[in-house]
Amino acid sequence: MDITKRLSVLLITAVTAVSLVSCGQATSSNVSSDSEVSSVTNAKASAWDSLNDAQRAYYKGLEDKGQTITENGYVYVDAKGYVDEWGKEYGDEGIVITSYFGTETIVNVPIEIDDKTVVGHTIDAFRKISKEGNKFDMTFDIKELYYPENFPEITAGIFSLCESLEKIQMPKSQTTIPFACFKHCTSLKEFTCPDGVTVIKQDSFSSCENMASITFNDGLKTIEDDAFVSCKSLEKLDFPDSLESIGIQSFQGCTGLKEINIPSKIDTIPKRAFFACKALEALVLPDNITTINSEAFARCNSLKEIYIPESVNEIAENAFDECDSLTIKGKSGSYAEEYAKENDIDFAAE
């Protein structure tokens, strides 16, 4: 099993500290398994009242281990000396959210609980424990999630397979979109990269099939392999001028993609970068491009024309496989013209 699948399985089956992060102030005292917690405003049942007996027993077990439970469903522990199930340490100050069992679907992550600074949360801190018979499972019910600007960076795989998530605002401290962070978030509709992000890691948004819009930040430099595989609803890629590289298969299977703006700092179109982008009809490559690798645009069945600059000196033989209506445009006498003739592709000199 590869690392991506292994991470996904661990996220689904782990029975350690599991949680969601809720909106509102988190300033309540501890509760015990047999206590009754007052209803919140608008006659909503408290978080504790919403749990079944098995769930209460699980969270009471965390309290017995020294963790604190609040009325609105946060479970936290002092950061000092705490090491989570992935071996991560959080320093000597503040608290770490380990679980949340609240009922809200629109969530504002708190920066303080009980007048204590939140310095992070565990990797499963957005998933609620559930139990059927002797089997534990995790569920995720949040639709919108908003981090405070100064919240610490979130880590790899944290929202993988969170299929209810429609919208998220990451902390401004974020410098990467971590590995598999939003993998298979099938309800995610849009995303805006925080200003400080320089790298979008491997598999970050793979299989986010309903994400129609992404706004890249100025300063983004790298998009890694498989980052947007099978994002079928994406229609436009407006890359910033700062972007220097895109990875192998980075946009493979983005079948709704119609418009791509490739910036001048990119010099290579990697293997299968835009494989099976079936709605793409036209593309202009910038003057800095030198190489178009294997199957870079293969199965782009609607691709009718592509401008290839004189800077290109290497194109894989199968770079445009199954692009049956394609005309390559470029300068007379260029490598692009030679390639077109050798591969029986129409060429138009400009």
* SSE arrangement, N to C: HHEEEEEEEEEEEEEEEEEEEEEEEEHE
Strand line-up in the sheet with most strands: 1-2-3-6-5
Radius of gyration: 24 Å
Mind summarizing the main beta sheet?
5 strands, mixed
| Count of runs of 4 or more consecutive helical residues | 3
Spans of at least 5 consecutive residues whose pLDDT stays below 50 are 1-44
Secondary-structure-based class equals: mainly beta
Distance between the termini: 49 Å
Gross morphology: elongated
What features would you describe in this structure?
By secondary structure, this protein is mostly beta strands. Helix content is 9%, strand content 23%. The protein has helices spanning 3-13, 53-64, 335-342; strands at residues 68-69, 74-78, 95-100, 106-108, 112-113, 116-121, 128-132, 135-139, 144-146, 167-169, 176-177, 190-192, 199-200, 213-215, 222-223, 236-238, 245-246, 259-261, 268-269, 282-284, 291-292, 305-307, 314-315, 327-330, 346-349. The longest helix has 12 residues, at 53-64.
